[in-house]
Design brief:
homodimer, 418 residues, alpha/beta, Aldehyde Dehydrogenase, Chain A, domain 1, Aldehyde Dehydrogenase, Chain A, domain 2, 2 domains
Chain lengths: 418, 418
């Protein structure tokens, strides 16, 4: 079979499973999730063996040690995948929830009910656990999934998908509900994202190259998980101890994530009070600071920040610092350079806090909290498939509800259109 | 300026207006809507003059009289456009609504607030009133709009857009909030749908050719208003008088709409009781019936329905009739041929009514009511920009709420990610 026919046949299997899967009860889906967790635990030795093949290939091809670490499975990480599936089993089922129901003047009752989206195409480049996480979240929300992981994790991903498929089948999950695209050819992605009418939604998670490719060629709706260029603005009325803690957390706690801070904006009234202490703490954690002229007047050994730096998502221990003359200048900077992902203000001023929440255009806007808190678990969505940077359907952290759509149901008694 | 630069500059104007527009109060937006209504009334003579140019060109190019009638403006239709804007002014503003707000264990309060989507690209082929309707709905929901109407209505659309822009400016609406793409070149659409990062959402309303074109080339999320291939299933337990009335209404009340019925499914236990009377009524209204063998045994002078007929959205006074042996056969037929738009069952059976609502995959599912009721006004959404056939963001009738997105807002007191 050629690649195009193979991709289509895998997608059609997933599509065919969508109707029977949507009809399953919560109990059946939860049982399957527990079986899947059990399967991962039982098949640990095989998972580790297959993962070793990926690690070997990665070493041979000279992948960085950070990337190799992301790829690695071990007993703890397999346990974490299994626990993740059990947690999803414990979450409420979004399918069938009546979001709203009302009576019309002509007597008919109209309701909006949550339903699965259908068949979801997941394209990812990250760690193998995404295979299990995505399969679990899609299953619980009644969606079938076509999984396409990164080529560097092909052995791990294939084995995880196999284990999950076999375990889910035991509980009556229809064949095809967890479909895996077993191809490292990038053309497989192109074929997949053109299957309009078969795949209902594409969720890409990965670097800019993947995003551009998917947006360019997809005929299917796409919910992007794209980059985050996030700011923290320390207002003149900030509690400076809080500001220091929040800025430090937003930069250092896990710099390689999309909701980490890339640029710190500081009001000129407090720059001399905040920056020396904060810079000392940041440097002690290995952070390189790049500053505007005024920052460099306070921190003389800091290198100059460039226009390009302000546009860069470092995903690393590097921080731009800019002193602003006003709240408005901070808003303008965020509007000009931000990626509408996660933005924070630290202030004790009521009016500016409210204005920041209202006027800053981002998926999540924070007052007096770290942007690192933008996360499905932290927000209480239960689990997350990622953080959407698309402006429609689901903006920001996406949980189970965001993997559903709604349909109208109408209870009539013979109503006609006049 | 070449076409590509022109389209981009119009889109950029609309994009630039998005932030100031989003910040306006409801009062300002409502005042603008009333000014816009007033403007249309006052400029009636000019609108009629420009519309006459479109009508002349349409006659000269041999457009059908039905299409010419759709194109025509008159005093009543201008009044209806103005009234539509006044109705939108009277609707609640969706922007700023806190959909939900909750406290997390770490003490931070997380909320979801409705916000405008940004800049919406409307592409339509239909009547000139869509220009005013779309502009009004986008304005009220805080979105700027880039309008691209059909070439046959270019003079009417251009003038309506001019009048609305001028009137809205009087009330402080930012320039560019209602932008018009003054080009009859189809390439303008291709340019427009590739402006990722400038236009945030594309809403196409029109025929299959336009839909295919937009899906093929768009780099921007698309909410399609595509075809409706809708069924009515008359169950063995139906109230046959009600079934007759619903089937007649769904076919005849306005056959050229997407929610009109194309195929009637009848349970074999009631076919002889229902079909003769219903067929008589339908034929008296000029409906051509195409039937399955069993239908033709009851209605001998009916022509045979083909496989292709079951796939055809007639948008006309033609009806396929098929007798089914069971409720399940009806569900299978709908799953195989329906376009997931609007589907109805007529029955007095509680269990099958519930199963139909649950198992039929469509944007709107009806028990004992006409599919023609699938409409924003009928459902109580207040007004509609159309009926979405996309499975994400907004499924089915789209009102003001569906023209918004949400963002997370977080009220913190120094919370960090541990």
């Amino acid at each position: 079979m050629d690649l195009s026919a193979y991709v289509k046949s895998q997608a059609q299997k997933a599509k065919a499973a969508a109707r029977p899967l949507a009809a399953l009860t919560t109990a059946v889906k939860n049982r399957a999730l527990l079986e899947m967790a059990q399967g991962l635990s039982e098949e640990s030795p095989r998972l580790l063996r297959e993962n070793a093949r990926d690690l070997e290939a990665a070493s041979a091809s000279g992948l960085s040690s950070a990337l190799i670490d992301r790829l690695r499975l071990n007993a703890d990480r397999i346990q974490a995948m299994a626990d993740g599936l059990r947690e999803v089993a414990a979450l409420p089922d979004p399918v069938g929830e009546v979001v709203k129901m009302w009576r019309r003047p002509n007597g008919m009752t109209v309701g909006r009910v949550r339903v699965p989206i259908g068949c979801i195409g997941m394209i990812y480049e990250s760690r193998p656990n995404v295979t299990a996480d995505s399969a679990g979240l899609c299953l619980k929300s009644g969606n079938t999934v076509l999984l396409r992981g990164g080529s560097e994790a092909i052995h791990s991903n294939r084995t995880i998908a196999e284990v999950l498929t076999k375990a889910s089948a035991k509980s009556g999950i229809p064949e095809g509900a967890i479909a895996f695209l077993d191809s490292v050819d990038r053309e497989a992605i192109r074929e997949m994202i053109r299957l309009e009418g078969i795949v209902d939604l594409i969720i890409p998670r990965g670097g800019e190259g993947l995003m551009r490719f998917v947006v360019e060629y997809s005929r299917i709706p796409v919910i992007k998980h794209d980059k985050g260029l996030c700011h923290t603005y320390v207002d003149e009325a900030a509690d400076l101890k809080m500001a220091e803690a929040i800025a430090f957390n937003a930069k250092v706690q896990r710099p390689a994530t999309c909701n980490a801070m890339e640029t710190l904006l500081v009001h000129e009234a407090v720059d001399k009070l905040l920056l020396p202490r904060l810079a000392e703490r940041l440097r002690a954690s290995g952070v390189e600071i790049r500053g505007c002229p005024r920052t460099r007047a306070i921190l003389p050994d800091v290198r100059a920040v460039s226009e390009e730096d302000f546009h860069t998502e470092y995903l690393d221990l590097i921080l731009n610092v800019k002193v602003v003359q006003s709240f408005e200048e901070a808003l303008e900077h965020i509007a000009a350079y931000g990626s509408q992902h996660s933005e924070a203000i630290v202030t004790r001023d009521y009016g500016r806090a409210q204005r920041f929440l209202r006027e800053v255009d981002a998926a999540a806007v924070f007052v007096n909290a770290s942007t690192r808190l933008h996360d499905g678990y932290q927000f209480g969505l239960g689990a997350e498939i990622g953080i959407s940077t698309t402006r429609i359907h689901a903006r920001g952290a996406m949980g189970l509800e965001e993997l559903t759509s709604t349909k109208f149901i109408v209870y009539g008694e013979g109503q006609l259109r006049e």
